[in-house]
Write a structure and sequence with these properties.
CATH topology of the largest domain: Four Helix Bundle (Hemerythrin (Met), subunit A)
Oligomer: single chain
Helix content: 40-55%
Strand order of the largest sheet: 1-5-7-8
Largest sheet: 4 strands, mixed
CATH superfamily of the largest domain: CRISPR-associated endonuclease Cas1, C-terminal domain
Radius of gyration: 21 Å
Structural class: alpha/beta
CATH architecture of the largest domain: Up-down Bundle
Number of strands: 8
Strand content: 5-15%
């Protein structure tokens, strides 16, 4: 018999056969009798760490050294996040059982032609049409012009006075309430995108539209959800702020948590990453090559 109550002490369940994300908060992750447990108050639950890909540890959570060792052994990601995933603080590096997503991303990114094709695909998803232009700076300019219109229309939809996008990095609180809300909402959506990127073991630095940031690909994915998710969260929070005394930061976090749960934003981001990288298409090619080799 192998060690531990489960006879899988050293084996790994492939990530493709695992469940996705498990959310835990206000308790301690520890190892009891060789298995991972989560203790919250008087309740102790055994965690099927071998059958989940990623554990999100929220506020009030702690983890023991032995639990970290067990998670690393079985390739399960542990990420420290804010309430409902509206902040992403840190995540242990994932050592997945396969490198398909990372290799596919690197393959597309390393070719200037393919990198531009992915960027155009991302713009098409956002703008609703495939633009004929093949220069990235031109595409960014077109996007910037259309974003101004989207901001204005979204503000009208929520009945909010809109005077344009203004943001001073040195003094972010100097902006009006709507712009402050957009800043906070963007941070929350970027956190969700970071979780999605971590869950797939994609490479955060290899962005297709953003380039310089160490979270370039995270920003790429977050932007795909800016029009429908980020702005809706921000402007809904502004309307709530007009009726109460809570800070805009708190209202945005609460609204983001509600939207993330209702719209399943993180799973949608995971699907979108697979779409823009054409991961399923690559896997089908690999399977076909494997069958040819067997023949």
């Amino acid at each position: 018999m192998l060690k531990g109550r489960l006879p899988l002490d050293t084996s790994r369940v492939p990530h493709g056969d695992r469940h996705g994300l498990l959310w835990l908060e206000r308790g301690e992750l520890s190892v009891i009798d060789g298995c991972l447990h989560f203790t919250s108050g008087q309740y102790v639950d055994q965690i099927p760490h071998q059958s989940v890909s990623m554990i999100l540890l929220g506020p009030g959570g702690s983890v023991t050294h032995d639990a970290l060792r067990l998670l690393a052994r079985h390739g399960t990601v542990l990420a420290a996040v804010g309430a409902s995933g509206v902040r992403s603080y840190t995540a242990l590096p994932l050592m997945p059982d396969r490198s398909d997503v990372a290799r596919r991303q690197a393959e597309l990114w390393s070719s200037a032609r393919r990198r531009l094709a992915v960027a155009r695909h991302m713009y098409a998803l956002r703008l609703g049409e495939v633009l004929p232009h093949r220069d990235l700076d031109t595409l960014r300019g077109i996007e910037g012009a259309r974003v101004k219109t989207i901001y204005r229309l979204r503000a009208q939809q929520f009945g909010i006075d809109w005077n344009g996008r203004h943001y001073d990095r040195a003094n972010p609180d100097a902006a009006d309430l709507a712009n402050q809300a957009i800043n906070h909402a963007a941070t929350a959506v970027q956190a969700a995108a970071a979780i999605a990127v971590q869950a797939l073991a994609a490479v955060p630095q290899l962005g297709f539209i953003h380039e310089d940031s160490g979270q370039a690909f995270v920003l790429d994915i977050a932007d795909l959800f800016r029009d429908d998710v980020t702005l809706s969260i921000a402007f809904a929070a502004v309307k709530q702020a007009e009726r109460g005394a809570e800070t805009i930061d708190r209202l945005v976090r609460r609204e983001a948590a509600r939207v993330f749960r209702k719209q399943q934003v993180i799973p949608a981001m995971i699907d979108r990453i697979k779409q823009v990288l054409r991961v399923d298409e690559k896997l089908e090619e690999a399977d076909g090559a494997g069958r040819s080799g067997d023949a």
